[in-house]
Design brief:
By secondary structure, this protein is of the alpha+beta class. It has helices spanning 10-16, 61-69, 82-90, 98-102; strands at 20-21, 23-28, 34-39, 42-46, 51-57, 71-76, 106-107, 116-117, 122-134, 137-149, 155-160, 164-169. It has a domain at 44-72 and 106-156: Pnp Oxidase, Chain A (Roll). It is built from 4 helices and 12 strands; from the N terminus they run αβββββαβααββββββ.
């Protein structure tokens, strides 16, 4: 079978590369109100020190919140939070109180100002240490200061080209003992 690589559009390549782990980033606005954004563009950036990076469009309300606050909590929503997580990725915090409208429960963080989301499979408390402008997004590099999780909620969400979310259990991909 001789399949040839073909030239793809950006949109086709992003779709073909799906699914991507879907996360919620919680930050604070200039009045101290929590705001949640759904993201597919995030990555681990360093093992030592532990760092993550998130890419946020410069025109987004969450971008302004990140610039103001300089901290965020990166939460992996559990399968049970799918509807709320999708809402957070589709609506702007300029016009919506996402915690109030989705029923997500904010829990005080241990180190940073923005809250954790109760029931997340994993939550990283992060402080921005650098930023890089890239096209229409800013990449926020952050130190991971604390980590929390709900190990019994092992199914978290993945984005299929920002058209829908699916849940997968990471344990299904571990070697059998």
């Amino acid at each position: 079978m001789d399949e040839e690589l073909r030239t793809l559009s950006w949109d086709q390549a992003v779709e073909l590369g799906s699914p991507y782990p879907y996360v919620l980033a919680v930050t604070l606005d200039d009045k101290g109100k929590p705001n949640v954004i759904g993201l597919g563009w995030w990555t681990f950036a360093s093992w030592e020190p532990p760092q993550v990076a998130i890419a946020v469009g410069r025109e987004r309300y969450s971008h302004r919140c990140l610039e103001h606050c300089g901290e965020f909590v990166l939460c992996f929503p559990s399968a049970e939070q799918e509807e709320a997580a999708w809402f957070c990725g589709r609506k702007s915090g300029r016009n919506h109180d996402k915690f109030a409208e989705t029923g997500l429960e904010a829990v005080p963080a241990h180190v940073v100002g923005p809250p954790l989301i109760e029931g997340s499979t994993v939550a990283y408390e992060c402080r921005v240490v650098d930023r890089m402008e890239g096209g229409d997004h800013t990449l926020f590099l952050a130190d991971v200061l604390a980590i929390h999780g709900t190990p019994e909620k092992s199914r978290h969400l993945y984005s299929i080209h920002y058209r829908k979310l699916v849940s997968l259990d990471h344990r299904d991909f571990l070697p059998r003992e």
